[in-house]
Amino acid sequence: MQRLLKISFDQALLSLTPILSWFLLSIIVDKNLINVFTITYPLQCIYGIVRSPFAVGANIHKAKDKNPNAVMSGLVIGIILTLVFFGFALLNINSYIDFMNMDPSIYRMFVTYSIINIATQTIFSFILDKLYYENKNSRANFYSIFFNLLNFVVLIGTALVTKDQTSIVLVTSIVMVLFTISVLFANWESFRFHINIFKCLKYDSSSLASSVFGFLTFFFGLSNALEFGPQYGLAITFVALVTDTQWDVLEAVTILAKIDISQKKFNLKKSLRNAYLLVALIYATSIAMFIGLFHLYNLSLPIALIFLGFELLDFALCPIYYLRTSFLQLNWSASKTTANRIFARAARLFLALLPTPYCSSIASISATFIQLATTKYFFKKNFLIDKNGRISKRSQPKQSRIDRLRYHDLPIDPEKY
User: Fold this and answer.
1) Do residues 293 and 340 lie in contact, with contact meaning Cβ atoms separated by under 8 Å?
2) Contact predicate 106/131, CB 8 Å
3) For residues 203 and 59, is the Cβ–Cβ distance under 8 A?
4) CA proximity to 254, closest of 187, 316, 206
5) Is the Cβ–Cβ distance between 303 and 231 less than 8 Å?
6) Among 57, 164, 215, 281, which is most buried by a count of CB atoms within 10 Å?
């Protein structure tokens, strides 16, 4: 549980600081800025698309295949892709804001900051993943705390000094980019560029598929939901802000599971018990933030509660399939696990286009139920769990004498074939 809390603490800091920043910026600078979080939310999935194969996958590749160059090679590829993806978003920033049914003249500057911030966090996460798999959690904690505190202090401090949006964005972005570069060089290692990209994709392909479909779902789904008016848009943003950190915290369950599975230390019952202790903490913080911050905004309580209810139900269900999917990915079939994730996410994308402001919430919970059912079936068919939580492969039924003759004992006539 201690390791899970350490990783979840890092995940929380990477998410909580931006959320607190958006709340405070909406109070200090412009109340409209709270909506920037929703506008750029789909781009957070780019973080997962890049990180999945070239940070998580590369670290597993190093552990399972004994390739000492995999992590640094993945880091280089990841940085290049991060600059390409987020650079493209910056070059098309007005079109992006327009598509999200918002006004570029109001949001352009801080959407620019948000894109730069997500890009910086993506590169920084590569360093944290490297340290996790090297069991240097304390060092990762230190970096994470400093990164997020520095970002928060510079951003809010500059906003208190000046209300000029260009100055706020410019100062904060420069400081955070320079800090990330310094940490990157502090953890740089000499290496020979050598990486099996296919294996990196394979080891975390289900998460990669989830991120790709997540981007498409939020990109089109949020644009769809925001068409129903400002009361729904504000409720979506508010509930996302009070639960998004908790979703990132819950991701620690998957991170730790993959570390333990790759190092052959995984225990399903213990991992599940720890995951639900974490869920209890997630519930408490989500509800506390909802109650504590609700009065600051002119929200419709019934609408906000409906969105919150969907999130809380999803929190309760996700740890089960998170753990099953991680194990199936690494110890059963990466292709089948990924295909299963794609099926669920494709259903989520389709449902996100429903003509209702609750489309994204309905789509998310439906995909979760699909994943619960399918992973349970695959797990039950292929594995056994003993009373201590250890997992073993289910023995396959013995072939009958007729089957053995059919496939093994009958001679092959070369003339016939």
Assistant:
1) no
2) no
3) no
4) 206
5) yes
6) 57
Residue 83, C-beta contacts closer than 8 angstroms, at least 6 positions apart: 119
Residue in the block written with tokens 């500057």: 109
Query: Please, which residues bridge with residue 383 across strands?
Result: 393
- Tokens read off for 59: 């670290």
> What gap in Å lies between CA 242 and CA 358, rounded to an integer?
17
Q: Which residues pair with 385 in a beta bridge?
A: 391
* DSSP H helical ranges for 162-262: 165-186, 197-203, 205-225, 230-262
For strands 383-385 and 391-393, give the pairing: antiparallel
Taking CA atoms, 88 is separated from 112, 280, 329, in Å, by 12, 40, 32
pLDDT of res. 411: 44
CA distances for 361 relative to 24, 92, 172, 295, 309, angstroms? 26, 28, 33, 23, 9
| C-alpha distance from residue 382 to each of 198, 257, 344, 390 (Å) | 25, 19, 20, 14
- Measured CA to CA, the distance from residue 271 to residue 253 in angstroms comes to 8
Please list, in sequence order, all residues whose beta carbon lies within 8 angstroms of the beta carbon of residue 88, skipping any fewer than 6 positions away.
none
SS3 385: strand
pTM of the entire predicted model: 0.69
pLDDT below 70 — which residues of the chain?
A: 10-11, 13-15, 396-417
**Residue 398 pLDDT:** 53
The HSE-up count of residue 263 (CA atoms within 13 Å, CB side) is 12
3-class secondary structure, 383: strand
Q: How far apart are CA 268 and CA 257, in angstroms?
A: 9
Quick: pLDDT tens for 352-395: 888 898 998 999 999 999 999 999 999 888 888 887 778 888 77
pLDDT confidence of residue 155: 94
